[in-house]
């Protein structure tokens, strides 16, 4: 019993300190990323941003360098990166609609792209 009590105190202390430290994310408080030029994923940690980018890469079947310049990930030189940003905003807006808020489904890139980098037409 003593061990559980100490563990509980430790967790409570950790959460209290984490909630007041700058850059923390506890109960919805955004944590700032050290990445440069983040414009859409501003409420995510660096780790969450990386996981999101990896997910998008899998959903499209592409590598990072379809959108990013190797050695300068912050660059907006590629049109594809600017387009991806607009589409990420669109997906977020879709997920705020009643259809997605009231269901267990979530919109993502695969919803429209179906694993293809470019959509030419809908069937």
Structure explained in plain terms:
The protein is mostly helical and 123 residues long. The protein has 2 domains: 1-31; 33-123, Photosynthetic Reaction Center, subunit C, domain 2, CATH 1.10.468.10. Helix content is 49%, strand content 0%. The termini are far apart. The model is unreliable at 5-29 (pLDDT under 50).
Summed up:
This protein has helices at residues 2-20, 46-60, 79-95, 98-101, 109-113.
Gyration radius, rounded: 19 Å
CATH topology of the largest domain: Photosynthetic Reaction Center, subunit C, domain 2
> Regarding CATH, which class of the largest domain?
Mainly Alpha
Q: What is the approximate shape?
A: globular
Structural class, please?
mainly alpha
Percent strand equals under 5%
What is the number of strand segments?
0
Major sheet: none
Please work out how many helical segments DSSP would assign. Answer: 5
Low-confidence stretches: 5-29
Quickly count the domains. Answer: 2
User: Which architecture of the largest domain per CATH?
Assistant: Orthogonal Bundle
Task: Please tag this protein with its features.
123 residues, mainly alpha, Photosynthetic Reaction Center, subunit C, domain 2, 5 helices, globular
Write the layout of secondary structure elements.
Blueprint: H1 2-20, H2 46-60, H3 79-95, H4 98-101, H5 109-113
């Amino acid at each position: 019993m003593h061990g559980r009590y100490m563990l509980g105190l430790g967790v409570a202390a950790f959460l209290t300190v984490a909630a007041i430290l700058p850059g923390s994310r506890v109960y919805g408080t955004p944590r700032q990323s050290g990445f440069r030029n983040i414009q859409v994923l501003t409420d995510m940690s660096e780790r969450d941003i990386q996981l999101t980018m990896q997910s998008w890469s899998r959903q499209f079947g592409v590598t990072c360098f379809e959108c990013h310049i190797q050695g300068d990930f912050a660059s907006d030189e590629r049109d594809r990166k600017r387009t991806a940003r607009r589409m990420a905003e669109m997906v977020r807006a879709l997920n705020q609609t009643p259809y997605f808020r009231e269901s267990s489904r979530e919109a993502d890139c695969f919803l429209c792209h179906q694993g293809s980098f470019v959509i030419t037409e809908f069937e």
